[in-house]
Amino acid sequence: MAKILIVDDEVGIRELLSEILRDEGHDILLAENAAAARAARNAARPDLVLLDIWMPDTDGVSLLKEWSANGQLSMPVVMMSGHGTIDTAVEATRIGAMEFLEKPIALQKLLAAVKRGLSRIKPAHAPSPLGLGAFARSAPLRDLRKRLEQMAEKSRIILLRVGPGSLAELCARTLQRVGTPWLDLSVSSMPLELNILETARNGLLYVPELIYLSRPQQKNLVFAMDRLERHAQTLVVATEHRPEELVEHGWDERALARLFEVSLAPPALGEIRDEIPEIASQILLHYVEAGEVPPHRLSSAALNALRNQAWPGGYAELKAAIKSLSLGTLEEEIGMDDVAHLLVKSPSVALGLPLDLPLREAREIFERLYFEHHLQIDGGNMTRLAEKTGLERTHLYRKLKQLGISVGRRHEETNS
């Protein structure tokens, strides 16, 4: 029979419901609060959840939102409450709850709701990409999400002023509504046509770094900007460069004025170091739910090591590291040794830099040394380099060309 998780802070209700459902032949899991419910859901993956609204730590609707945001609402959820309102019931249903039961729950209503819920179990599908809503227990990320959503209510264009350790993709995914298209305007240089924008109606348009866009891609971006309202789209772009630097790279000043009109500087991973264990855990859980990696968990020591690691590539680099750890470890628990083997300490090239240079020149020297180092230790393998740096392949090639690093020659040497 089915595996059912009952979440209620009242022990009497938990015992009553579990007794009834065990008599029906179901396997029962119990949780007295949201923290226990998270752990039980992650460990056992129940077929159905009976979820109380009023709990001492986190209310049921908030937990439902969290599961929905991080792609874990893969099972039917029946909400329960002794003093719920119509508004609460409507909100829970909108988020994804199957139905709402009022306490005291009549036996026949309970059994009928469970039967309906279990009949609606769908085949597993890939969860939606993670947004900031998946990290409901992180105060800085909650605040960041609120700021983004508040800005998106009044503006269809949001520019993220980022630097090393960027959370740009995570921010953009937060504003992508579930089930709507995602269009990265940096992927193709082909002319953007109206039928493509129509296909992406109600979706989110994204550019991870403005300075890497070619002239045709810049024209595509302006073309899309002019039609955001018509296609009900939101545009999120990111850059670590000032407008005057972008003008030097061929950008039109009028287009930049529109892009920089509404901007936000999200924190870098290094600024929210204490949140990295929570982010890493949710990334791993998301990969497991999507079936991309075997079931694993991160040990406390591994989480602490990840917390203390520098992440210049930001969220993308952390994601790549978690996936590599998950695929490379031999045990169910990812330990400190696994992290140490993956995150090999590189020789500190920064100490050899002439520190009396202007920042821009010193950064360019560091970036050249950085990429040369990783190209050397990976034998010119661009796939591994993209994973380590957290850069998309297209952006990586442009960056190497900008730094004067020959990619083609390295490939020839590697493949010879």
TrEMBL record:
Asked if Iron is a keyword of the record, the answer is no
Database matches in Pfam families: AAA_lid_14 (PF25601), Response_reg (PF00072), Sigma54_activ_2 (PF14532)
Q: Name one GO molecular function term.
A: ATP binding
Could you name the domain of life of the organism this protein comes from? Bacteria
The answer on whether this UniProt entry bears the keyword Transferase reads no
Query: What keywords are annotated for this sequence in UniProt?
Result: ATP-binding, Nucleotide-binding, Phosphoprotein, Transcription, Transcription regulation, Two-component regulatory system
Outline the extent of the Sigma-54 factor interaction domain. Answer: 134-327
Q: What is this protein called?
A: Sigma-54-dependent Fis family transcriptional regulator
